[in-house]
Amino acid sequence: MLYNNLSGYFRNKYGKRLGKICIDGGFSCPNRDGTVGHGGCIYCGERGAGEHINQAVSISEQVRCALIDADESDAFVAYFQNFTNTYAPIEVLKERYDAALIDDRIKVLAIGTRPDCIDEDIAALIASYKSKCDVWVELGLQTANDKTAEIINRGYCKDVFEKAMAILKQHNIPVVVHLILGLPGEDMKDIKETVEYINGFDLFGIKIHSIYVMKGTRLAQMYENGEYNPPSADFYTDAAVYVITHISPDIIVHRLTGDCPRDLLVAPEWNRSKNEIINTIVYKMQQKCLSQGCDY
Ligand code: SF4
Q1: pLDDT value of residue 50
Q2: What's residue 259's pLDDT?
Q3: What is the mean pLDDT of residues 153-171?
Q4: What are the sequence ranges of the domains in the chain?
Q5: Is it true that domain 6-211+248-260 has CATH number 3.40.720.10?
Q6: How far is CA 199 from CA 113, 195, 270, 284, in A?
Q7: Which residue's C-alpha comes closest to atom 7 of ligand 1?
Q8: What is the pLDDT of residues 121-135, one digit of tens each?
Q9: Which residues form the pocket of ligand 1, taking CB atoms under 6 Å from any ligand atom?
Q10: Any residues with CB less than 8 A from the CB of 32 and at least 6 apart, and which?
């Protein structure tokens, strides 16, 4: 196998593919409301990811809608996607996670958040769901370079990520880290350093995102002003191959591209062809007989 993909992991673990129910839990983000920053990360859209989710309905209703056409034998991941899904008092978090776990076919509770919104109590709450289903937490690191973190207005430094990782490890909560390749000011050297950095942690999974410029973001302004130019598809696919070949073969690769809604994409054009990007990554690896972790 070229890389350890999520469908293979699901098949081994559950004997089937799991569908993903993307949930807007009605959270906000401390990097947007002024608690740690204003305006958010420069690439973040108004919906904090998950632009396609119908946020007008309750969490349970979002889950019910997703299950309408499902068979009894189907299985799902309930993925809290938009904004920062641990950014609320514990009682509220519990209420919202409970509202998603309304059907036995949900096998995984996945929670996307920021490292500065992880503490002991939150980790203990998330860990408590392990008696009901599998859980994992997704952290948007994007880069290990603190200078880039400032440019993208991420609002926290590496040591915050390290602290969150230590807390989650203590509670035995698997972590999926998100990286973005092609951030402003970054080249292959930065990407290599980020890979070296994440290799210092015991990661369950990785999401590798291609950067894209989305309408209405600060990054879109930078693009229009000529302050930022997205990388070429060739650079991105080379960089993704580098990441895959230099991470542990045990890490589950959850994603290989970014996914901008078509009507909101400003640039680059190549971001529209998700399959082509994945096929190119696979082709480049096959051509050189590479596999995940071969240079780990
Ligand atoms: S942490 Fe996430 S939700 Fe918050 S501004 Fe950054 S990308 Fe958006």
Answers
A1: 60
A2: 86
A3: 98
A4: 6-211+248-260
A5: no
A6: 20, 6, 29, 23
A7: 44
A8: 999 999 999 999 999
A9: 29, 31-32, 40-41, 44, 48, 83-84, 114, 140
A10: 38, 39, 40, 44, 48, 83
